[in-house]
Amino acid sequence: MTDTRIDAQTAAAPVYTVPQERKIVTAIPGPKSQELQARRSKVVSSGVSSALPVYIERANGAILVDVDGNQFIDFGAGIGVTTIGHTEQRVVAAAADQLQDVIHTLFTITPYEEYVRVAELLAEHTPGNWEKKSVLVNSGAEAVENGVKIARKHTGRRAVAVLDHAYHGRTNLTMAMNYKAMPYATGFGPLAGDVYHAPSSYPYRDGLSGADAAARTIGYLEKVIGASDLACLVVEPIQGEGGFMVPADGFLPTLQTWCTENGVVMIADEIQSGMARTGRYYASEHFGWEPDLVLSAKGIAGGLPLAAVTGRAEIMDASQPGGLGGTFGGNPVACAAAIAVFESIDEHDLLAEGRRIEATFRAGLERLAARYDIIGEIRGKGAMIAIELVQPGTGQSTKAPNAEAVTAIVAFAAQHGVLFLSAGTYGNVLRFLPSLAVSDALIEDGLRVLDDAFASLG
Ligand code: PLZ
């Protein structure tokens, strides 16, 4: 029998190898997952946690299948990684082919075409109509690290600025760039120096217009750092772990103008928001922002590890030869998968799928918000949507964070075969990051479970 996972790559419509439906057949976690959890606790560091300890055996489209045969609707996509769907046919086929040809040579020793092709595709699809170059690395945090290195080399300056509520990674530099100390930095210091946390735009809580929020941020940068010492300002166009904050209109382009006027490199961390996640290739486009450098990771290679720094050629060329790279950066199999991701987005018009998903989610969430006043705000773009929960009876007024409700809803949904993720500086945001393969029927099914979860809060 032929393997449909590979042969189906040329089919016009996606072919799913797992029925796209939820199904719960055991207690959650089931007995096999519990056995694995016991084995894991002996050999895997307890510093590595798992939000839902069901062990996944198979994943396809928008569905996760665990070792006990339970099927979950996946509204997390591995935190925004399997954006075009789990085990997407074209990605699987491209990676399988590449495995037969070349698995590794190391681009800095003997190069290969796939790396060059990914850089071409990034130059074409990132915002800004100018000459661009890229470096490929392994992870989001490594992309952030390289973006900062390149900006420092280009400007000859030392300071790095980030925004409140940011998340940029878990490496030594990036843990200093996160807003939350716990769990990312607590006890892991000393932290990297010369990292400054400037005020962000969080319209739901600060009520500021884009112009006023930008003026506040710029005031901080000028007073606390001084433009002449600032190498770069690193910003997530829609903040991810922080809680899907959509900045007020004008905030990002105003900051970019100030950066340009002051010789500061402005870097878009599009690691969570990029690669067709929000109904555009890059979320920056929603705000009319054309960043100097753009960081891609997560969704870029359909689940294989790959990340990139892409940007203005004159900035990207600041490094001396040999200053950028790494053993696995731009691995041929990951690059082949990334090429397939770009092709799949274009061929199946997945940007439109992001807009469809937003419309379905928003309509459903608005219905829920009319009935449950603890939904303080619905926000986000495309397949990057969230609700922020506040204390009961207070509605939109006091906005006291309600993390307990998020925890309870996530737990309830998991028991019913739906994987939701939490987020937010205050832990009170429920975020939806489905793959673009999720059907309206699955979204509606997930929303029904969400409704039951709200009702169960009493
Ligand atoms: N920048 C905007 O979202 C990764 C973290 C999951 P890496 N976010 C998910 C977890 O708990 O580790 C992320 C991000 C933004 C950078 C990163 C870091 O990307 O690939 O995890 O290093």
Automatic annotation (TrEMBL):
Alphabetized InterPro entries for the sequence: 4NH2But_aminotransferase_bac (IPR004632), Aminotrans_3 (IPR005814), Aminotrans_3_PPA_site (IPR049704), Class-III_PLP-dep_AT (IPR050103), PyrdxlP-dep_Trfase (IPR015424), PyrdxlP-dep_Trfase_major (IPR015421), PyrdxlP-dep_Trfase_small (IPR015422)
Superkingdom of origin: Bacteria
GO biological-process terms attached to the record: gamma-aminobutyric acid metabolic process
Reaction(s) catalysed by this chain's protein: 4-aminobutanoate + 2-oxoglutarate = succinate semialdehyde + L-glutamate; (S)-3-amino-2-methylpropanoate + 2-oxoglutarate = 2-methyl-3-oxopropanoate + L-glutamate
Keyword tags: Aminotransferase, Pyridoxal phosphate, Transferase
Transmembrane segments: none
A Pfam family of this chain: Aminotran_3
Pathway where this protein functions: Amino-acid degradation; 4-aminobutanoate degradation
GO molecular function: (S)-3-amino-2-methylpropionate transaminase activity; 4-aminobutyrate:2-oxoglutarate transaminase activity; identical protein binding; pyridoxal phosphate binding
PROSITE patterns hit by this protein: AA_TRANSFER_CLASS_3
The protein's required cofactors: pyridoxal 5'-phosphate
Documented EC number(s): 2.6.1.19, 2.6.1.22
Matches recorded under PANTHER family: ACETYLORNITHINE AMINOTRANSFERASE, MITOCHONDRIAL, AMINOTRANSFERASE CLASS III
Family: Belongs to the class-III pyridoxal-phosphate-dependent aminotransferase family.
Protein name per its UniProtKB record: (S)-3-amino-2-methylpropionate transaminase
The organism of origin for this protein: Agromyces fucosus
